[in-house]
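Worked example

This section walks through a single chain of length 333. The input is the sequence exactly as stored; nothing has been trimmed or padded.
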Amino acid sequence: MPDNEKELKAEIIKVGKRLYQAGLAVAKSGNLSCRIDSDNILITATGTFLGDLKEDDIVKVNLNTNKAEGAKNPSSELPLHTLAYKNFPAKVVLHCHPPLINGYFALNNPLKALTFETKFYLGVVPVIPQETPTVTNPDAVINALKSNSLVVLKNHGTVAIGNKFEEALSLTEALEEAVRSAAIGRLFNKEAFDELDSALKETLTKDAIAYPMFSREHIQAIVDLVNKDEFIASKGRELDLTLKLAVKLDGTDKAFKFNFEKGRIVRLDNDADAPFVISGPKEVWEQVFLGKLDSFVAVTQGKMKLAGQLGQLSKWYVPFTRLFSLFKQVKFK
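Given that input, the structure is written out below as tokens.
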């Protein structure tokens, strides 16, 4: 066995134990995989205990042929794992059945985010209906993973992707903790819980015109909405939201710079010459403009890049979150 495969198997075994010890995987539930190279992955075998994996419980599979090496069969969720690797540059896929997440999303949807950490790192977690013990419609999961690196499968756990297991595991643990906090908050004060974030409810009417995405007209329409928004104006004055922030479409020369002064965009420039530049590919920006992906979450999950310090932007997190929510009010084509 090549050294890198041996090291990757050791990593899978380590993650399986951590999932079991944290109570996120019990009995023979859950499965893990990682990319060896562009053509091959390692995945846990069917019917294995993630908390007590051995080297021969981890199977090598060719992504092009789906052919597995060795005597054991790969997890029944292999189609989901292989499709994830074919659609994303991710290096790991983690699927487990966290009890609090399963219990919460079986009866509630969506999650009320009570902490800034939940909003900042998880954003809006997609929830996909699931009616069978094995994922039989992986396309729906793949589509949801375009807007978030973590997806809930209703009554069936979670799927997380990342460049390393630490990232996927961190997202899973963060959601389990967020659900725990939400459940406790509801016990303490159900009425206040149900009214949470009422100040951020959207009251604007969607624009009937559909602009070419990332055109001057598209971005200007967003600017016009931002400058009409009383919540952003109020928070902008309170927090002195004064800075230059640019957005850029990867692979093109399309870039726009927002010049903020106390929450108001006083000028829109056609360049990316700014202390803070958020950039990403077309498919990710589409999710942002549809309101399915928060730009902050996209940066923390590695779907978009930020030139500049995220920590410096975080003091304006509340008005920026509102700003990003307004993106979906402008139609694009």
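What to look for: The two ends are 50 Å apart (CA to CA).
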